[in-house]
Amino acid sequence: MSAPRTLAAAAAPGGGGRAKLTHPGKAILAGGIAGGIEICITFPTEYVKTQLQLDEKANPPRYRSIGHCVKLTVQDHGVRGLYRGLSSLLYGSIPKSAVRFGVFEVLSNYAKDSSGKLDSKRSLICGLGAGVAEAVAIVCPMETIKVKFIHDQSSLNPKYRGFFHGVREIVREQGLRGTYQGLTATVLKQGSNQAIRFFVMTSFRNWYLGDNTHREMNPFITAAFGAVAGAASVFGNTPLDVIKTRMQGLEAHKYKSTLDCAYQILKNEGPLAFYKGTVPRLGRVCLDVAIVFVIYEEVVKVLNRVWKTA
Fold it and tell me: How does this protein lie in the membrane (predicted)?
């Protein structure tokens, strides 16, 4: 069986010869590298987004705006405070991105038609599969730990001294189930995220590449397409992201289920609460998706030169 192609190759029609295939190992390695670099660049916006979503109206809210959240965080903890919880996300971001691209490449290899083309509809299904895989294997436990860390650090008396101490305490107090809170919401969020992103990305690639399978994709073009794909996913599933964050916070015990969480938010805070943190998430996700796709493609090019496969 032939190995999966890169995203650019998978998106391109079969005119001008069969597109070059990529070994799945390269996809996994390139995805991991891209994920690690991306999270180090964009984490502060993720921190602010999570803080705003956890800042429920019933508290009453501590933060008046994005700028106010940043100001208070730096005031209380210094600039390093914007990177609280980075370790938990970094440890998960590398395997998450590796699983995402690895699974997508494998699925897209099966989904391509006889001409070697992966159309937009099939890429949506492949993206959905990649999103569900990363949600179950990596994202849910990673996100649960991240949210608990950020929520704990914003309390008056933080109890977690570091990543491994925090994980140990969570497992000791709640068992392994404590790292899988909000699984349903996470699967829905990641599945829809990747379905939307790969659908939009493939649509743009097919349009840009046309019938020329060997046309080079300029990194700036890839970044622009990636940013649009990221924006589409934000507006498409921010409500799921808000529910997931609440289900994984330290006060998750207040909710009986994912549906109960959604009902409580709607009842107590109104429909606009489902779009809390949209602006910081929009900035982070657009940058995130653009960076990941660009780095992924560039790393694959390097690997193709140094790692010869059939």
Answer: Multi-pass membrane protein
Can you list the alpha helix ranges (DSSP code H) found in the chain?
7-11, 24-54, 66-77, 86-111, 120-134, 140-153, 163-174, 183-209, 219-248, 258-269, 278-306
Nearest to 108 by CA among 200, 10, 253: 10
With 0-12 CB in 10 A as exposed, 13-18 as middle and 19+ as buried, what is 257?
Answer: exposed
pLDDT tens, 202-259?
999 989 988 776 677 899 999 999 999 999 999 888 888 888 878 877 777 888 888 8
Claim to verify: residue 162 and residue 247 sit in the same structural domain: no
Q: Which domain holds residue 218?
A: 182-276
Q: Does 146 map to a domain?
A: yes
Q: Would you state the structure tokens that stand for residue 55, as one six-digit string? A: 């800042």
Together in a domain, 139 and 187: no
Q: How many CB atoms lie within 10 A of CB 188?
A: 21
The owner of tokens 């992924």 is 296
Q: Quick one: three-class SS letters along 235-265?
A: HHHHHHHHHHHHHHCCCHHHCCCHHHHHHHH
Tell me the backbone φ, ψ of residue 5, rounded to 5 degrees.
-90, 165
Bridge partners of 5, per DSSP, are: 21
Q: Same domain, yes or no, for 169 and 244?
A: no
pTM (predicted TM-score): 0.73
Q: How many domains does the chain have?
A: 2
What's the gap between Cα 78 and its chain centre? 27
